[in-house]
Amino acid sequence: MRKGKCDVAVAGATGAVGREMINMLSANNFPVNELRLLASSRSAGQKLKFKESEIVVEELSPEWIKKNRVDIVLMSAGGAVSLEYAPLFSEKKIYVIDNSSAWRMNPAVPLVVPEINPHDLAVDKYIIANPNCSTIQMVHALAPVHRISKIKRIIVVTFQAVSGAGWKAVKELESQSKKIADGDFRELNLPKNKISVFPHQIAFNCIPQIDVFLENFFTKEEMKMVQETKKILSSEIEVSATCVRVPVFRGHSEAVNVELSDDITKDEIWEALLKEKNISLIDDVSKLRYPMAIDAAGKSATFVGRIRHDESRPKCWWFWIVSDNLLKGAALNAVQIAEELIKII
Amino acid sequence: MRKGKCDVAVAGATGAVGREMINMLSANNFPVNELRLLASSRSAGQKLKFKESEIVVEELSPEWIKKNRVDIVLMSAGGAVSLEYAPLFSEKKIYVIDNSSAWRMNPAVPLVVPEINPHDLAVDKYIIANPNCSTIQMVHALAPVHRISKIKRIIVVTFQAVSGAGWKAVKELESQSKKIADGDFRELNLPKNKISVFPHQIAFNCIPQIDVFLENFFTKEEMKMVQETKKILSSEIEVSATCVRVPVFRGHSEAVNVELSDDITKDEIWEALLKEKNISLIDDVSKLRYPMAIDAAGKSATFVGRIRHDESRPKCWWFWIVSDNLLKGAALNAVQIAEELIKII
Question: Which residues of chain A are within 8 Å of residue B212 when distances are taken between CB atoms?
Answer without folding.
Answer: none
